[in-house]
Amino acid sequence: MEKNIKFYWKLFLSTFTLSAFTLGGGYVIVPLMRKKFVEELKWIDEEEMLNIVAISQSAPGMIAVNASIMTGYRLAGVLGAIIATFGTVLPPLIIITIIAKFYTAFKENRYINALLLGMRAGVAAVIIDVIIKMSRNVIKTKNSISIGIMIVALIASVILDINAALIIILCGVFGGFYYNIVKKAGEDQ
Known about the structure:
The protein is mainly alpha-helical. The protein is built from eight helices and no strands.
């Protein structure tokens, strides 16, 4: 893929529009990024997008921004990361600036409060959709270690009520240990 002004503009517009028209945070924008960059533009393959999402969740900061940085960097290096990040951060910055200006009017408006309450259900549905799709992708790999990690993480989160950050860190440590030490040792023999 040729890295010209048209490519960078398309990268910026893609991240800008995804960010501008996505309500609900990073877990909502990630499946839309997947649809845009994997299915529509075919700039990234499915497995690589899963890896980008995993790293984005594990890194400190907002998942949408982390995913944009990773995607932009993967596609076009540092300049791509900067452009994708700017495209992702600019819409919330504009929207929050406008909301801050009219905060009192928004806070006391019952219609806006009702609208936001209704949006919660939609956001929950999108998050459940993400969980189902990502779980299917992990199961499709038929990798028993990845499936086991997913099941243990689910149990730790839902049943044992362990903090999500701790689960992500432990899964990352285990995955890094397993794939870089145990699996490499098995391949060397």
